[in-house]
Write a structure and sequence with these properties.
By secondary structure, the chain is of the alpha+beta class. It has a domain at 34-112: Pdz3 Domain (Roll). Helix content is 31%, strand content 28%. It contains three helices and six strands; from the N terminus they run αββαββαββ. The protein has helices spanning 2-23, 57-61, 80-87, and strands at residues 34-36, 47-52, 68-72, 75-76, 95-102, 105-112. Strands 1, 2, 3, 4, 5 and 6 form a six-stranded antiparallel sheet that branches.
């Protein structure tokens, strides 16, 4: 009887542990395919595009070097670390609306993460 109870408890413990571990799996990293200007420090936030990775989402959408990415899905980007935090919320296949300032013009791009 005690052996049966121990086996049942052990099985339940393993089941709960496996469930908890699977729930904590990190999301797949995604990227827009841009190279950032790490020295940019704008008073209004955002991240500046220094270059593009050929064939990736940002280039396909029409984002250009020199553009300032100011928001993603209506969330204003405060800076580089905030941008990286926002990216971590997405997985491959997700769509994002990117707001870009190009000189004095505001542009919007709908991008699907690959």
């Amino acid at each position: 009887m005690k052996t049966t109870i121990r086996m049942t408890l052990l099985t339940l413990l393993l089941l709960f542990t496996a469930t908890a571990l699977s729930a904590q799996q990190p999301k797949t990293k995604v990227t827009l395919g841009i190279k950032l200007d790490y020295f940019f420090s704008g008073s209004d936030g955002g991240v500046k595009v220094k270059g593009l990775v050929s064939g990736k989402a940002a280039e396909k959408a029409g984002i250009q070097a020199g553009d300032l990415i100011v928001a993603m899905d209506n969330t204003k980007i405060k800076g580089l670390f905030h941008y990286r935090d926002l990216l971590s919320e997405y997985t491959s296949g997700d769509k994002v609306k990117v707001k870009v300032k190009r000189q004095s013009e505001i542009l919007y791009f709908n991008i699907r993460f690959e």
